[in-house]
What we know:
By secondary structure, the protein is α/β, with parallel strands linked by helices. It has 2 domains: about 220 residues, TIM Barrel (Alpha-Beta Barrel); about 130 residues, Lyase, Ornithine Decarboxylase, Chain A, domain 1 (Beta Barrel). About 30% of the residues lie in helices and about 25% in strands. The protein contains 12 helices and 18 strands. The strands form 3 sheets. It has an 8-stranded parallel β-barrel with strand order 2-3-4-5-6-7-8-9. Helix 5 packs across helix 6. The protein is elongated and about 80 Å long. The two termini are about 25 Å apart. Bound molecules: pyridoxal-5'-phosphate. The site of pyridoxal-5'-phosphate has 12 residues, from helix 9 and strand 9.
Amino acid sequence: MREPGFQTPSVIELSFDAIQHNLRFIKKFVKKHVRISSVIKGNAYGHGIEIYVPAAEQCGIDHFAVFSADEAQRVVKVKKPETDVMIMGWISPSHMSWVLDNNIQFWVFETERLEYALKLAHSKQIKAQIHMEMETGMNRTGLNHADLEVVWPLLETYRDSFNLVGVCTHLAGAESIANHVRIQRQIKRFRVMVNLFRSRSYEPDVLHVASSAATMAYPAFQYDMVRVGILQYGYWPSKETFIHYISRRKDKLDPLRRIISWRSCVMAVKFVKQGEFVSYGTTYLATDDKTIAIIPTGYSHGYSRSLSNSGRVLIGGQRVAVIGMINMNMLIADITSLDEVNIGDEVTLIGNQQDISISVASFSELSDQLNYELLTRLPAGIARRLTS
Length: 388
Ligand SMILES: *Cc1c(COP(=O)(O)O)cnc(C)c1O
């Protein structure tokens, strides 16, 4: 029996070279003075916060954006002391004290949180590191003009209890040109609201609005900082953003590299006679004698059930078909065309084997999921490791 090189049923590998390559590309693309905030919500888009953060720091990243305080706590455990962390979404009231004590930057999008945070910071005699999120047309979170009337007296009362780190907003769909008019209107409203702060002598350290799509498609909206998520992992926010980028280039090559590979191994090999069914039910009938490999990865590990009878995996440097229903912990591949397959042989679910690959994109097309969704659904429980 061959030792697959990992003890868990599968392993997710992150390529340091690819991380470095992507971050270099992003750095080169954004304007000189623009800071990059690396967005690592959703467990670093499924890549794993604990592995991704130190690797990105090694490539010069010193600002990370998360959705919630529990994610921020995971970042704080592994980051360098001087690296900044910003919470863009949920903070439970019981977490606010930790957020303030640890100098965590956070978004304010309703006045209750602002008042609560400022009072707490005042009682601690420290400063809350706040980013004011403006409602400019996405109609999700953000302060509108009526809210600002409540904000001004609060800021005045607690003048010494905060740093206005940022004023920001989020654009509703910069990955599609169809939203162009809506985006332009959002920026217009954003400018008006920023001026309201300035007219009251509140000068934010940074203005920021751009995620990956706006960073690439609307360079004028990079302002002082960009919040880059999906790009750094090697994926474009949409086909449109990619086409928009390469249409202006001579080489037409994708400048990004995928970071993630997902590997499992062969757990058992067996022969199935013509006329037999494979796996649960009768969805797969062996029309010939078949050799099959059983692989210890199923839908509980994030391998979508919708890939039943349609997925592909790599074994022995060849692409082979997933047959039958995906089980909770196992899937089955048709290896009839392969010469020799042994227990313990590597199986690539996502990534390369020699010169062929299973991309997350093809995987998500087959399983009808967005890259974003597929990546973030990779369970945190799968072992992760950094490779070169
Ligand atoms: C997720 C998120 C981003 C990053 O989006 P990408 O498309 O992955 O670059 C930026 N800003 C906010 C507010 C987000 O929630």
